[in-house]
Design a protein that fits this description.
Radius of gyration: 26 Å
Low-confidence stretches: none
Distance between the termini: 14 Å
Shape: globular
CATH topology of the largest domain: Jelly Rolls
Mean pLDDT: 90
CATH architecture of the largest domain: Sandwich
Protein name: Phage tail family protein
Strand content: over 45%
Organism: Acetobacterium malicum
CATH class of the largest domain: Mainly Beta
Number of strands: 24
Helix content: under 10%
Largest sheet: 10 strands, antiparallel
InterPro entries: Siphovirus-type_tail_C, Siphovirus-type_tail_N
Pfam families: Sipho_tail, SPP1_Dit
């Protein structure tokens, strides 16, 4: 069963399904396109350069039903409160029975319920999504460089250590990982560099485009540096012993905040010293034009 859930900035939410009290009757989304062109002297028509997506208009036609008049009045009050435009940005979450997709939006109008009886009414909820993409609710984690544990023993027979010792774990040999973007648009990600012991100047490079992220810093055991490359959220932070701090001043001046292009994205990690002490994780979410 398809459901839509709206959560406002105060944490209040409403769920719309195919039954009372909030019955979703219609759902639509309209996203405009802005074409950027160039016109030469005497040219017929224009030369297409590029385009960009405009805000997305989302509309929900709903029926509100209460078991009696007093409940209906309470439902109407809750609807107006949850969709109060003064609360600012909220989240609309779509579930199709398999996965959740989320889009950030703000009410474009104060909801107005048209009474059909003293227990039932209808309303059209208008929302505006300035970022027109729906996002995966759950992040996908890609581990590029990691240690895999190999050690185990029979607890009943106890632990016996041979003279040649025991292999506790092994290093995954691959320096490259593919992060496919199956969505409808270029996406950002969070790149996480983790130090198992001392290393210097960790980096991550797109094998195809040669764009890269690089941190000019000596990292010590237990230190974590996270690079956020999501549009308008670009940031670099450092964590050590549970203490968070800004690490933007450690970025290489020629680096790029890497994006995930549609299709395959091959990334290679590196460090100038202590490569075997580096663990790299990528956290990503696909973006979709609709649900």
């Amino acid at each position: 069963m398809k459901t839509l859930k709206y959560i406002n900035s105060q944490g209040e939410e409403l769920i719309f399904t195919d039954s009372a009290p909030f019955w979703l009757k219609e759902f639509s989304q309209n996203t405009g396109v802005v074409n950027h062109t160039n016109k030469g002297s005497g040219q017929d028509g224009n030369t297409f350069l590029s385009n960009s997506l405009d805000d997305s208009d989302i509309s929900l036609k709903i029926s509100v039903r209460g078991s009696e008049k007093s409940e209906f009045d309470q439902l109407k009050s809750k609807l107006r409160r949850v969709f109060n435009p003064k609360f600012g940005m909220g989240s609309l979450i779509h579930n199709n029975g398999e996965k959740d997709l989320e889009i950030k939006c703000v009410p474009a109008k104060v909801p107005f319920i048209v009474n059909k009886s003293d227990r039932r009414g209808e309303c059209i909820i208008s929302l505006i999504a300035n970022n027109p993409y729906w996002m995966d609710m759950n992040q996908t984690k890609e581990e590029i460089a990691l240690w895999v544990g190999d050690f185990e023993f029979d607890i009943l027979n106890g632990l016996q250590i041979p003279e040649e010792g025991i292999i506790m774990g092994h290093r995954e040999p691959s320096l490259i990982v593919n992060c496919p973007n199956d969505g409808d648009g270029e996406a950002g990600m969070i790149i996480e560099f983790r130090a198992l012991a001392t290393l210097t100047n960790p980096s991550l490079r797109n094998v195809n485009t040669q764009e890269y992220v690089k941190i000019i810093k000596t990292m010590v055991a237990g230190e974590i540096i996270r690079v956020n490359t999501h549009f308008a959220e670009e940031d670099v932070e450092m964590e050590l012993n549970g203490v968070m701090s800004n690490a933007f001043n450690y970025i290489d001046e020629d680096m790029t905040f890497l994006k995930l292009y549609q299709g395959d994205n091959l990334f290679r990690y590196d460090a100038e010293t202590g490569l075997d002490n580096l663990v790299v994780n990528i956290y990503r979410q696909n973006k979709y034009l609709g649900v």
